[in-house]
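#lab-general

N.A. 3:47 PM
ok so I finally got the sequence cleaned up, no stray characters, all 218 residues accounted for. can someone with queue access submit it? mine expired

B.Y. 3:52 PM
send it over

N.A. 3:53 PM
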Amino acid sequence: MKKKAVCILSGGMDSATCAYIARQQDYEIIALHFDYQQRTMEKERACFELLCNDLEVINKAVLNVDFIAAIGGNSLTDKSLSIRENNLNKDELPNTYVPFRNGVFLSIAAALAQKENASDIFIGVVAEDSSGYPDCSADFISKINMAINSGTGENIKIHTPLVNLSKSEIVCKALELQVPLQFTWSCYQSNDKPCGLCDSCLLRKKGFEKVGIIDPIL
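B.Y. 4:20 PM
back already:
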């Protein structure tokens, strides 16, 4: 019997690459997606479904976590706040940081993993080439992994295969695994055409440019 892994799959390039790594490692994938009233919620959900179809995922869950938007404090859910553009300064935490989002996501993923008897969780956090979110660090993942196992009585392992990679290395890994990058979305602002200005667009652009190929979503 295959080992099971809950893959947190936002519809972005990083989480998609993680899911394809899990498939390469012969896990049975349980795909987990969150709707939290983010600006690009519809596009992210559509990408999630396309990726699940390509991965031939049978077991998937789409959860409404609107309470994240109700808490607020970030420009992804609060349209009265402007999303930072043309600025990748890691010395300041941008307002696109959703307070403790990965902590929330991983706690829910752990509950699903326990229910489904899954031994592993995959999440596409990136620390090295990112906007500097504190809940994307290897240290945070290690500590929340210990808390999850303490709170569940299980031995669940959180995998972060991209955490120390650059965006160009992630693009290369995605190409190696034949991830359908045309089915992924990174823009924080737009559901149709990437804005090219937000942190996520800038990081993705940098990755593709360094590899020397054209991003299929452009």
